[in-house]
Amino acid sequence: MTETSVASQPRARGSGRGAVWLLALALVLLVVWGGWRWWSAQEQMRMADDRDLDQHLQALEARTARLRLDLRAQSQRLQQAEATNRVLRDELLGLGQRAAILEDDLAAVARPQRDAAQALRLDEVELLLAQGQQRLQLAGDQDGAHRAYALAAQLLAGLEHPDPGLLNLRQTLAQERAALDALGEDPRRTAAGRLEALAAALPALPVHAPAAGQPAASWWQRAFARLVEVRPSDGALALEPADRAAGLAALQLELTLSRVAIERRDEAGLREALDRVDAWLTRLWPDSAGLRERRAALAALREAPLSASLPSLGSTLEQLRRQRASPPRPAAAPGES
């Protein structure tokens, strides 16, 4: 091999390497340019999307602003309508009140029970009901209460143009009269009769207790019985004539106080007086079947009531006063139900 061929071989190798590097550089530049083009396209697309999004947001804000304006306008119209309705409602209420006042005035003029004669009749009914209630409460006069209630019922039934509200009053009066009829005898009269029967039965009680179970007296006791009487010192019976006379007088006084308490319908005073009567019974008479019977009757009389219990008493009077105090209600029109 000559020197010329040997020198051309390195030269060819160096040119080949340069071409390779140039080709690689061209490929790198091509890749970079392609990447830049892709990034630029993506950036343009992103910017286009942002512009579209901004346009959509602006459109939404514009629509929201328009909706707010519409809502504000609707609220103003609603407030105006509410104010108008309030004014109309107040006017209607005023008209209704005026109409009610006119109806009351017309009813006061037209109703026949507002005349003087019928008002006087109702005053008489009220007076009779009050008298009947006071007779029964204060004096226990059931007969007088019956008569007063009967006269009140006759007056109510004799009204020429009765108010429909008085029908309930007549029904209440009928119920109160029925309850009054069911009371029976006056408890005070019954208690007084029982006390008199008890007082009349007291003298029949034995003064000396029968000596049952005691041994027969010895000859010297029988001999000195007319001179000396031996009895236990702890006995509570009043056997001496002076003691018995004083005890009987005290017993009669307590019985009189019991009668007074019955007349006054004083149940507490009656119980206290009967307790003292019971104490004198055990002091004046010895224990016996008759005494126990009288004491049992005394205990029953102690718990007996002295006043009649009538829960409905005065209900008619109260209803009449409440009805007369309330304003009259106008009669309904023919077409109303």
From TrEMBL:
Residue ranges of coiled coil: 57-98
Top-rank taxon, per record: Bacteria
| InterPro entries, per the entry | HemX (IPR007470)
Record's keyword annotation contains GTP-binding: no
| Keyword list, A-Z | Coiled coil, Membrane, Methyltransferase, Transferase, Transmembrane, Transmembrane helix
Q: Which GO terms describe its biological process?
A: methylation
Recorded GO molecular functions are: methyltransferase activity
Looking at the UniProt entry, the stretches that span the membrane are 20-39
For the keyword Membrane, the answer is yes
In residue numbers, the region (Disordered) covers 312-337
Checking PANTHER family in the record gives:
PROTEIN HEMX
Protein name as annotated: Uroporphyrinogen-III C-methyltransferase
